[in-house]
Structures are given as C-alpha cells and as structure tokens.
C-alpha cells in the first residue's frame, strides 16, 4: 500500500513576538531628540535675542519634555516616567555643578595672567601706590607678590593642625572607646556640636580676646590665628575621627583582648591603625576647610606687607587676608588693576592648595587602607 | 602546657539580667569538651566567662568561682589581661587583623604587647604556630600578604595559629566552624583533634555530629523559656550524652526533637 505522504509546503512562520519584550526605542532615538531640542532651543532663544544661557535653558526644557512624550508613545508610561526622572536627576546634577565650574573657570581665567614667578617669590614689602601707577603708565609687568601670604597661610595652618589633631583625636578616642555614654560624654558631644556651628568670626574674636587678656590687649600673632582656626578645626576632627573609630568592628578589639593585649595598646595598635586612613583624610579635609578662612585671621593675625616667619611674634599676612586687602584697599587707589590681578592670582594659589589637600586626602586613604587581596 | 578548669556555682549577668545560672563543671586538661544546646541558652556567654572576656561588655558581671588549676580567675587582684594570655579564644567569625600580614597576624600576641623577639625566634614561632594550625603549607610562600586575602577556612586557622602563638594553657572556641564550608570544617575538626595533645580545648558547637566527632566530654545547656536563665542540664562523656543520656531534655535535644 503506497504511503500517502502529503507534503504540505511549510506555512510561513508567523512573526512571533516574544511576550517578554515590548516596543523599544532604538539607541539613537534620544540623541535625535537631543539634537532636535538643541535646534528648537536655538530658534526659541533667537526670538528673544540669542544668549547661550537661554539657549541651554530652552533646550533642556524641550529635551526633558520631548524625551517624556517620545518614550510614552513608543515604550509606554512606565518607561516614560523612568526617562523623565532620569533626565531630572541629570539636570539637577548639572545645575549643582554649574557654580563650581564657573568659579574654577573664572579663577583660572583671571588668575593665570598674574601667576608669575615674581608673584610667588616676592612679598609686597615696599610696594606703594606710586609703583602700581608707574606700572600701569608704562605698561610694564606687575611687580610685588604674595610670598608673605603663602608663608603665613602655611605656618598658621600647620600650627592649627598641630593643636587640633591631638586634641580632636584624643577626644574621639575617649568618646568611642572609654566613655560608656555617661554624662561627660554627652556633654562633650553637645559642645562639639555647638562648636561646629560657631561662626568663624566668633572663633577669631574668642582667640583675640583670650590672648588679649593674657598677653595684653592687641596681641596679634600667627599663633593667635592658629588657635582661632583650631576652634573651628577641632569639632571637625572629633566628628570625623569618631565616625571612623565607630566603624572599626568590635571583633577586632575582642580578638586583641583575647590575646592578652591591654586596652590602651589595643586602641593604639589595632583600632587606630585600622581606622587611620579615614582619620587622616578627615584631618586633611578639616585643614582644607580652615585654610580659606578670612575673618578670624584679620582679627587675630593682623595684616602686613612683609614676610614674617615667626608665628609667635609680629603680625602675619595670609592668602585670604591678602586677597581681601588687595580688593578692598588696592595698593594704588587710582589704578586698581595690578591689585586685582594679584588678588586673583592669590585666589588661584589658594584653590590649588585646597585641591592638593583633597588629593593628599585620597592618597592617604589609599596608602593606609587595610590591605586586602591575595 | 595545659591546665584544668573547675567552675563552682557560677552565675553570669548582663546588668540585672541573669543569663546563666548555677553552673558547676570540671574540665580535664588535654581534653576536648563540647558545649551544645539551643540558641540563646548561654553557651557563648558562659564560654566567655572562662577567660574573662565576658566583662568586656558594659554592665556584664559574674558571681561564683572559675578555678584554673585551683587558682580563682575572679579572685581579688587577678589581672584579666594575664588570664587572657593563658586562656586563648577563637571566635565564631574569623577575625584576622586587616592591617597586618599573615606573619604579623601570627605574631600579634607578641608584637601588640611590645615584647622583644629576635628575627629568627619570630620566624620559628610563625612556622611552629602555622604548622600547629595546619596552615603552614598553604601560606608559607605568602607570609607577607595580608591575612584578609585568605579563604574563610584559612582565616579561621590563621586565628587559631594566632591564639596558639601566645602559648596558652586552654583554647576556647565559640562555634569556630559555623561560618565555614564543609571542607574547611573538616580541616578545623582535624586540627582540634591534634590540639588536644597539648591544650585543653573547649568548643561551642551547633552541630551535634561535630560534637560527637571531636569531643571527649559534652555539656548540654538548656533554657526554660525566653527571659529565663540558661542552665547546665547534663555533663558527661560524649558517648553517654549521645547514646544514653540521663535527662529527658538531653535525649530530646540530641535526637533532634527540639532546638
Ligand atoms: N551583649 C548582651 N547583652 C545582653 N544580653 C545578652 C548579650 N549577649 C547575649 N545576651 C543574652 O544572653 C543569653 C544567652 O546568649 P548567648 O550566650 O549568646 O547564647 P548562645 O551562645 O547559647 O546562643 C540570651 O538570652 C541573650 O539574649
Ligand atoms: Mg553563641
């Protein structure tokens, strides 16, 4: 019996859409939306007189809205909301970044012309208005520099660190390791919190008044300024060190005790080394925080035009007070440009210092971090 | 190199809370004693009183006597630091010092106490302790690498090496294998078997097979209910506890009927 094999031609396979996928925008879609928004934004901006700020603003608004509706029409409501939220977060981030970028750009633009070797190696000693007037009249390079301010800033901040770090560190060790949440500990925590909120000028007045009482009125030296800065630094050091000590696992302390190691040795050799990277970067950030203080320095260290290496005697200039002076009381009242140029250069140096400190903090954290890996 | 422990009428408190009540137990030198019992019955608490680690916690205190070869650990004038250097401890979770190399971890008991030790003595001590903890072969080429880079089981053996490097009389272990895989657990159990030749070993375990495998004597702790103190219910040869216990509660527990 012949086999009846009917070979039906295979039906064209229906284009089966996976139930798991939905419509998806192609990868270039959002770039297209962005390009469209930029063009539209430019057009809208031209209507009211083109400006880069309005262009950016209009484009951003159009992009966020268009992104939402395009996604809504293709990918659905949930994806559209997701896109909207994502765009908002990016927008917030960019807005937050704007001031920082604009500060850096401004300081770089205005500071670099004044950043000459002369500025770095000379003080303002003997610089009078006549000199600046001549500079402007003859078109010669600006002379007079900020060497004395750099010296003052470095000395005063170093002394502030020398004072604050031991006090702050020991306080934090007491709070975390020894106090059992008693009255004294709570009082210390309270006062540290209060100190965190002290306006810096008040810290300056305190130091000035204190030294005025002890060594006679009008005592102004670099050291008085260092004390004022310590008042601002100590709470920051205490707080950051406290947090770092708290996250050292208790198991490590117990492991050490179980080996017959005394408590103070355990703290010194196990707890603090384990936390040292965090402590060190906390200290560095505290320094960065006070290095730019101006008000407390004006009332404690005074202001001079010449170099002073002695923190215990004589007035002292620093970078922030130098900037303040050059802007508010230009060396030559009639020709303020040289002073402004010096001030911007000094501001640039100050920012470089702060950035270096941040880098150092990261480096320290990296170097001291507990080692892992095989 | 090993001493006996005798506990008389020991009550252990956290502040006002009586956590463990009325323990009497005699632990022979060069033996392995296992503490078993349901969670929260006070095994860890009691173990930590044996080397005065209990009082490290704020408010924690004890009443009663713990005699190490006849000398009361809680007698007047006894320095807990001395006690702890004679009675070592290994914890539930391996806790090598993260800032130290493998070598320094082993030498921690010496170095943290600022004791002088010559380079060659230190090398000998490291080799001896790591060999004693069955870890020497695995790490001898990487002694300067951080201890935290080892596997969990190796870290736990490193902690044991660190404990035996200070030459204690007694080694206390609180669930030393509960964070480890079965292979590492076997390695530690083998090690406990060897440690018995030189030290008095007390081990808390949740694993009854483990208690049966490694211990000479077993103590069963139990608790009447939450908030009630834990008590030592039965203490006897391991074989007796697991085959023919005197108490009904012990039998229920070892046969898996509760806990
Ligand atoms: N640090 C502590 N503070 C207060 N109570 C504790 C503390 N540690 C344990 N306890 C209590 O002591 C009892 C025994 O706990 P524990 O010794 O850890 O039991 P086990 O080790 O047998 O599981 C439990 O009731 C527990 O809640
Ligand atoms: Mg326990």
Description:
Chain B: Pfam families: ABC_tran. The complex is a heterodimer of chains A (374) and B (259). Chain A has helices at 29-47, 52-75, 77-111, 117-121, 129-138, 147-178, 183-196, 200-215, 222-246, 250-258, 263-291, 295-300, 319-328, 337-368. Chain A is an all-alpha fold. The radius of gyration of chain A is 31 Å and the shape is flat. Chain B is α/β, with parallel strands linked by helices and 259 residues long. In chain B, the strands form 2 sheets. Chain B has a 6-stranded mixed sheet with strand order 6-7-8-3-9-10, with helices on both faces. In chain B, a hairpin with a 2-residue loop joins strand 1 and strand 2 (17-27). The radius of gyration of chain B is 18 Å and the shape is globular. Chain B starts with a strand and ends in a 5-residue tail after the last helix. Chain A binds chain B through residues 180, 249, 251-262, 265-266, 269-270, 273-274, 370-374, and chain B through 51, 53, 56, 58, 81-82, 84-86, 88-89, 91, 93, 95-99, 101, 108-109, 111-114, 142, 145-146, 148-149, 159, 162-163, 166. Adenosine-5'-diphosphate binds at residues 14, 17, 19, 37, 39-45, 57, 230 of chain B.
* Helical/strand content category of chain B: alpha/beta
First and last CA, distance of chain B: 36 Å
Which structural class matches the secondary elements of chain A? Answer: mainly alpha
- How large is the radius of gyration of chain A? 31 Å
N→C terminal distance of chain A? 76 Å
Total domain modules of chain B: 1
What number of domains of chain A?
2
* Element pattern of chain B in H and E: EEEHEEHEHHHHHEHEHEEHH
Largest interface: A-B, 25 and 34 residues
Mean pLDDT of chain A, to the nearest integer, reads 89
CATH topology label of the largest domain in chain A:
MetI-like fold
| Overall outline of chain B | globular
- List unreliable stretches of 5+ residues of chain B: none
Would you identify the CATH H-level superfamily of the largest domain in chain A?
MetI-like
Major β-sheet of chain B, in short? 6 strands, mixed
Write the element-wise H/E pattern of chain A from the N-terminal end onward. HHHHHHHHHHHHHH
Query: How many strand units of chain B?
Result: 10
CATH architecture of chain B: 3-Layer(aba) Sandwich
CATH class bucket of chain B: Alpha Beta
């Amino acid at each position: 019996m012949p086999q009846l094999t009917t070979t039906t031609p295979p039906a064209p396979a229906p284009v089966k859409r996976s139930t798991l996928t939905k419509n998806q925008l192609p990868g270039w879609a959002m770039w297209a939306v962005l390009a469209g928004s930029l063009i539209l934004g430019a057009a809208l901006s031209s209507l009211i007189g083109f400006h880069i700020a309005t262009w950016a603003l209009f484009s951003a608004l159009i992009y966020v809205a268009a992104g939402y509706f395009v996604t809504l029409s293709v990918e659905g409501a949930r994806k559209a909301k997701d896109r909207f939220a994502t765009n908002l977060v990016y927008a917030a981030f960019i807005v937050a970044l704007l001031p920082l970028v604009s500060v850096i750009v401004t300081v770089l633009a205005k500071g670099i012309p004044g950043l000459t070797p002369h500025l770095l190696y000379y003080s303002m000693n003997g610089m009078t208005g006549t000199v600046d007037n001549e500079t402007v009249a003859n078109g010669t390079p600006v002379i007079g520099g900020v060497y004395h301010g750099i010296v003052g800033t470095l000395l005063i901040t170093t002394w502030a660190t020398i004072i604050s770090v031991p006090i702050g560190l020991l306080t934090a060790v007491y709070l975390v390791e020894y106090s059992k949440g008693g009255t004294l500990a709570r009082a210390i925590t309270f006062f540290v919190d209060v100190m965190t909120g002290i306006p810096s000028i008040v810290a300056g007045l305190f130091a000035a008044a204190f030294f005025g009482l002890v060594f006679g009125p009008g005592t102004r030296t670099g050291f008085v300024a260092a004390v004022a800065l310590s008042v601002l630094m100590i709470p920051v050091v205490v707080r950051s060190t406290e947090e770092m000590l708290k996250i050292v696992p208790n198991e490590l302390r117990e492991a050490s005790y179980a080996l017959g190691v005394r408590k103070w040795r355990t703290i010194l050799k196990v707890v603090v080394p384990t936390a040292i990277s965090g402590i060190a970067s906390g200290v560095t950030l505290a320094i960065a925080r006070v290095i730019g203080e101006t008000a407390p320095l004006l009332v404690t260290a005074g202001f001079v035009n010449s170099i002073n290496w002695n923190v215990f005697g004589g007035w002292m200039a620093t970078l922030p007070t130098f900037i303040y002076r050059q802007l508010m009381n230009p060396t030559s009242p009639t020709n303020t440009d040289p002073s402004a140029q010096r001030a911007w250069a000094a501001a640039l140096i100050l920012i470089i210092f702060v950035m270096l400190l941040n880098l150092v903090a990261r480096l320290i954290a990296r170097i001291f971090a507990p080692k892992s890996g095989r | 190199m090993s001493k006996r422990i005798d506990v008389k009428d020991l009550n252990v408190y956290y502040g006002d809370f009586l956590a463990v009540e009325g323990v009497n137990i005699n632990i022979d030198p060069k033996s392995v004693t296992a503490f078993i019992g349901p969670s929260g019955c006070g095994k860890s608490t009691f173990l930590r009183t044996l080397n005065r680690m209990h009082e490290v916690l704020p408010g924690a205190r004890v009443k009663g006597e713990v005699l190490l070869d006849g000398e009361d650990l809680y007698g007047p004038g006894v320095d807990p630091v001395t006690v702890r250097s004679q009675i070592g401890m290994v914890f539930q979770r391996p806790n090598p010092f993260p800032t130290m190399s493998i070598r320094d971890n082993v030498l921690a008991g010496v170095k943290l106490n600022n004791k002088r030790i010559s380079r060659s003595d230190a090398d000998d001590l490291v080799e001896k302790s790591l060999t004693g903890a069955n870890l020497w072969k695995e790490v001898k080429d990487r002694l300067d690498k951080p201890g935290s880079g080892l596997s969990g089981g190796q870290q736990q053996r490193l902690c044991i090496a660190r404990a035996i490097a200070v030459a204690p009389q007694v080694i206390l272990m609180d669930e030393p294998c509960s964070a480890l895989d079965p292979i590492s657990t076997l390695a530690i159990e083998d090690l406990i078997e060897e440690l018995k030749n030189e030290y008095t070993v007390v081990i808390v375990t949740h694993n009854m097979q483990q208690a049966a495998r490694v211990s000479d004597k077993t103590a069963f702790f139990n608790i009447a209910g939450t908030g009630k103190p834990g008590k030592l219910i039965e203490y006897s040869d391991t074989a007796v506890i697991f085959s023919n216990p005197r108490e009904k509660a012990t039998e229920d527990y070892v046969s898996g009927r509760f806990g």
